[in-house]
Specification:
Elements lengths: L8 E12 L2 E12 L3 E5 L6 H8 L7 E6 L5 H6 L3 E4 L11 H9 L7 H11 L15 H13 L5 E5 L7 H16 L3 E5 L3 H7 L2 E6 L2 E7 L3 H4 L15 H12 L2
Parallel strand pairs: 3-7, 3-8, 5-6, 6-7
Antiparallel strand pairs: 1-2, 1-4, 8-9
Helix pairs in contact: 3-5, 4-5
């Protein structure tokens, strides 16, 4: 199921395919993320989640299809204008720089006023103030992930794209990140989140899409899922045993959609 494209779309992929050597890693992927969405992007390892994010970020060029962000197909221009900010599956921090230096360097690419105040705010929000002058190489994986998240959010972008943001975070930090996403969403920010954590995404997202083998196999408003597919008729699951998105995933696997 694909929802009708609307005028307030912020991120659109239309029949996007990506071929590497002789294989297609993405096959006619179409996604529509509207302003104000928290959009969950779900799939197993190797399904195409990270590859999709890489074509959105113009790390990979598309073989065919069209990507539009904030009404423009000039992805380099949109990214350089500061309208979109990423955190990838690997934090990609500079290990010899301090926490503050890493965030400050990233922030310098965005049209931000009061950079210092913004950095201080996000260091405090993610409870990493005490590490501001610590080299990233000396941090735990969880704290490195929090630095990457603070670095992304200091940009004050319109659209945030997160690839497996909950990886390496402890339970408290996972809940904290979800609260931050909801707070920023209430300020009008839009989120596109790739994650395996389906129960968490279910509580957070307004829309979801499932990708398998490089193709989007299901896409819906979170509140319409029960109407989009008959979950109760799946022999693979019992009602109440799994979350809604887990039930949906198992049903999709069972029916081969």
């Amino acid at each position: 199921m694909y929802y009708e494209k609307k005028k307030n779309s912020l991120l659109k992929l239309e029949n996007v395919s990506k071929k590497i050597r002789d294989s297609y890693i993405l096959k006619s992927v179409s996604i529509d993320v509207e302003r104000g969405d928290i959009f969950g992007f779900i799939g197993p390892n190797g399904a195409g989640k990270t590859s999709t994010i890489r074509v959105i970020g113009n790390i990979y060029s598309v073989t065919s299809g069209r990507i539009e962000i904030s009404g423009s197909t000039d992805l380099d221009m949109v990214i350089k204008s500061g309208k979109v900010s990423f955190t990838l599956d690997s934090p990609m921090l500079y290990p010899k720089l301090t926490v503050y230096e890493n965030i400050n360097y990233y922030a310098s690419f965005f049209p931000i006023s009061n950079i210092k105040e913004s950095i201080d705010l996000w260091l405090k929000r993610f409870d990493i103030e005490k590490y501001r002058n610590t080299k990233v190489s000396e941090l735990s994986k969880g704290n490195r992930q929090k630095v990457a998240l603070a670095r992304m959010l200091v940009s004050d972008a319109e659209l945030y794209i997160l690839d497996e943001p909950y990886v390496s975070l402890d339970i408290d930090s996972q809940f904290l990140l979800s609260e931050v996403i909801k707070e920023e969403n209430s300020r009008g920010k839009t989120f596109f989140i790739s994650s395996h954590n389906m129960p968490l995404l279910e509580r957070l997202c307004s829309k979801v899409a499932f990708i398998e083998g490089g193709s989007v196999i299901f896409q819906s408003n979170i509140n319409d899922i029960e109407q989009d597919i008959s979950l109760k008729n799946s022999s693979a699951i019992k009602d109440g045993e799994y979350s809604l998105l887990e039930r949906l995933y198992l049903t999709l696997k069972e029916t081969g959609k």
